[in-house]
Amino acid sequence: KVALLVGNNHYEHHPNLLAPVMDVFELSRLLEQLEFQVVSLLDLNKAEMVAAVSQFLQLLGKGVYAIFYYAGHGYEHSGRNYMVPVDAPQPYVPENCISVQRILQKMQQQRTALNLILLDTCRKCPETPPQGFFCPKKVRTRPSPGRCEDAEAYELQDGEYSSGIFMKYLKKHVLQDKKVTHMLEDVLEGESSRPL
Q1: What pLDDT sits at residue 142?
Q2: What is the pTM of this model?
Q3: Where does the Caspase family p20 domain start and stop, copy by copy (predicted)?
């Protein structure tokens, strides 16, 4: 069981976020209780994100349970989903970002027992995410058709601490003994029922 958690808070050319640090910390603690070997990284530029994903993929193989979690800015372009490194310039373009679909494809090629990508970003989700891709829909974005870079992430602030709405519901369900798909459905149900 291996997991790579990436949280990008401090951006050079985009608004800073507060929740990814706390979200990565909380998910790391929960996954370790499930006996995952966890690598948690914060504020990565593009080269660092590429290197981290490459090393993570080398750990995968037959029978491995693999989780990749990303919290930070993200966007959708031509039906593909991208994570935004801390050094990405304005405006968002695919060349300066990391393709989620490419990571999922490489994970699937490793014949792992489980591939799970949790994309916790302020972005517009596709209507039909690709198989193996989970996106916290509805609650993570405010409506802004065609302008994903202007969408705002929902963050809960408590003094110095801040966490995302997605993590609030995920941590309620992740340790329960149930199928992953059922757990994620429960997370979505909790998020969707929250008043905006």
Answers
A1: 29
A2: 0.76
A3: 1-123
